[in-house]
Amino acid sequence: MAFDPASLKFDAAGLIPAIAQDTGGAVLMMAWMNADAVARTLDSGRVTYWSRSRQAFWVKGESSGHVQRLIEMRVDCDRDCLLLLVEQEGPACHTNRRSCFYTAIRDGEEVEIMAPVAG
């Protein structure tokens, strides 16, 4: 069966959450995609998100060089969330960390568990 991005369940703004995970299993980040961003990602192999703040497409790594290459796109059972298995070059987070999930809650306290990559 051929995949049609229109078969996904987008929110009222036409967006769907997309979780990027590296091939080793680490969750890197979450961002938003619209149907065109999904199609562009599948066509190019370069992960393309939709920037809600800029109201524009955002090809991951276009300005930073921290490129995400799509290995596989997966759709969840409700078709309202995507999992992107990616090959990540450099940090995924704009804070220069490997992952955007660098703060843990431990014993009621926020603990930074990942430092920025030395650059």
TrEMBL record:
<comment type="similarity">
    <text>In the N-terminal section; belongs to the PRA-CH family.</text>
</comment>
<feature type="binding site">
    <location>
        <position position="100"/>
    </location>
    <ligand>
        <name>Zn(2+)</name>
    </ligand>
</feature>
<feature type="binding site">
    <location>
        <position position="77"/>
    </location>
    <ligand>
        <name>Zn(2+)</name>
    </ligand>
</feature>
<dbReference type="GO" id="GO:0004636">
    <property type="term" value="F:phosphoribosyl-ATP diphosphatase activity"/>
</dbReference>
<keyword id="KW-0460">Magnesium</keyword>
<dbReference type="GO" id="GO:0005737">
    <property type="term" value="C:cytoplasm"/>
</dbReference>
<comment type="function">
    <text>Catalyzes the hydrolysis of the adenine ring of phosphoribosyl-AMP.</text>
</comment>
<dbReference type="GO" id="GO:0004635">
    <property type="term" value="F:phosphoribosyl-AMP cyclohydrolase activity"/>
</dbReference>
<comment type="pathway">
    <text>Amino-acid biosynthesis; L-histidine biosynthesis; L-histidine from 5-phospho-alpha-D-ribose 1-diphosphate: step 3/9.</text>
</comment>
<comment type="similarity">
    <text>In the C-terminal section; belongs to the PRA-PH family.</text>
</comment>
<dbReference type="GO" id="GO:0000105">
    <property type="term" value="P:L-histidine biosynthetic process"/>
</dbReference>
<dbReference type="GO" id="GO:0000287">
    <property type="term" value="F:magnesium ion binding"/>
</dbReference>
<keyword id="KW-0028">Amino-acid biosynthesis</keyword>
<dbReference type="Pfam" id="PF01502">
    <property type="entry name" value="PRA-CH"/>
</dbReference>
<dbReference type="InterPro" id="IPR038019">
    <property type="entry name" value="PRib_AMP_CycHydrolase_sf"/>
</dbReference>
<feature type="binding site">
    <location>
        <position position="93"/>
    </location>
    <ligand>
        <name>Zn(2+)</name>
    </ligand>
</feature>
<dbReference type="InterPro" id="IPR026660">
    <property type="entry name" value="PRA-CH"/>
</dbReference>
<keyword id="KW-0963">Cytoplasm</keyword>
<keyword id="KW-0862">Zinc</keyword>
<feature type="binding site">
    <location>
        <position position="78"/>
    </location>
    <ligand>
        <name>Mg(2+)</name>
    </ligand>
</feature>
<feature type="binding site">
    <location>
        <position position="76"/>
    </location>
    <ligand>
        <name>Mg(2+)</name>
    </ligand>
</feature>
<feature type="binding site">
    <location>
        <position position="80"/>
    </location>
    <ligand>
        <name>Mg(2+)</name>
    </ligand>
</feature>
<protein>
    <recommendedName>
        <fullName>Phosphoribosyl-AMP cyclohydrolase</fullName>
        <ecNumber>3.5.4.19</ecNumber>
    </recommendedName>
</protein>
<dbReference type="InterPro" id="IPR002496">
    <property type="entry name" value="PRib_AMP_CycHydrolase_dom"/>
</dbReference>
<dbReference type="GO" id="GO:0008270">
    <property type="term" value="F:zinc ion binding"/>
</dbReference>
<keyword id="KW-0479">Metal-binding</keyword>
<keyword id="KW-0378">Hydrolase</keyword>
<comment type="subunit">
    <text>Homodimer.</text>
</comment>
<comment type="pathway">
    <text>Amino-acid biosynthesis; L-histidine biosynthesis; L-histidine from 5-phospho-alpha-D-ribose 1-diphosphate: step 2/9.</text>
</comment>
<keyword id="KW-0368">Histidine biosynthesis</keyword>
<feature type="domain" description="Phosphoribosyl-AMP cyclohydrolase">
    <location>
        <begin position="29"/>
        <end position="102"/>
    </location>
</feature>
